[in-house]
Prior knowledge:
The chain contains two helices and 29 strands. It is mainly β. The chain folds into three domains: about 5-90, no CATH class; about 105-195, no CATH class; about 210-375, Trefoil (Acidic Fibroblast Growth Factor, subunit A) (Trefoil). Strands 17, 18, 19, 20, 21, 22, 23, 24, 25, 26, 27, 28 and 29 form a 13-stranded antiparallel β-sheet that branches. The model has no long low-confidence stretch (mean pLDDT about 90).
Amino acid sequence: MDGCYTDISTARTLAASAAVSPNMTVETCIAFCTAGDYIFAGVEFGQECYCDSTIQIPGVKTSLSSCTQPCAGNSEEICGGPGVLTVFASGEPSPIIVTAPEPGWTFQGCLTDDVSNRTLPVPINVPVGVTAETCTASCQAASSYIFAGLENGHECWCGNNTNPIAEEVGEEDCRAVCSANHTEYCGNANRIAVYDFNPEGSAQPPPQTCAGDIANFTLLAVYNNPPLGFPSQVNLRAVLVELVPNTFWTILSACATCCSDWPTFSLENSVFFPRSASNPVQSMASIGPEDGESPAFVASSPPFPGAQAYCAAETTNSADSSLVLSFGGKSNSWSLCTNTTANANGRVDLVFSPVTNHPHYAFSSCNAVTIQVIEA
């Protein structure tokens, strides 16, 4: 016996396969899981059996005294209890995340995914079954995609870019056993194991050129994948969000109906300044956003010097000569998110690297954008 583990119905500790029987015994459950080629078998609540080849998050080992319920098919044996599993291990080696499945393909990490805003946009059917080897090969064969992703044990996704709002999480989040090969892991529910293709000897992208001084420009947010019913691009403006004596704050927003006295912007020594139409000498300077926050600006007395982390970067796309807004060396981490605070009235604001469980927006409302710098 491996021990007694916690279990919840919404995130099973052993999640790959299950069976229920009024005659359940430890031997019955172990035989069922062994036949399925899993290395863990767990009995719960007297008559339930669960199988997997890894202990899934958030399951943790607990006291053996928590597992006390007799098995329905043999009262001399213990079959877990309410919300706890008696777990048995075969001793066979655990599955692995394949790090280099095909020539040129390497594992990049485990990322979050959302059914309404996919990390990789293109689903691929793999008739022989999804593994790291078959998914990467299928993505390459389908359209020479440079990213491939494994999800939920049996899904394969492809693309040429990953969605910037996807967050990297620990590899332990991507430990669902591949349905087609139980020696490998294939992501997990809402977690995608991402691979990218970079053949040895291929040319590296040129270094990014980034201008920290531009006198007068406006900003245009271009959706990477426009939401249904939305325009493909929207103008950004500095919107007043807080006013106190001698200090007021603005953030960047796509709100078309909000009043704004700052129609243009400038970059000076990598500090980002909104420019007032009514008070040209006013100094409102940038605050560097943390992950999950909106770019903010403050006008105060004495003046705030500003955060030196912004620039206008040249795109690496030869078909596009526009400049794009970059912060901290990143130009692909912007999203527009619906602000859920009461006084925002559904305003859509710019956010840098959105995070889950933020108090001011729902992660699922965020849509990745590129911010074009339009010189006057």
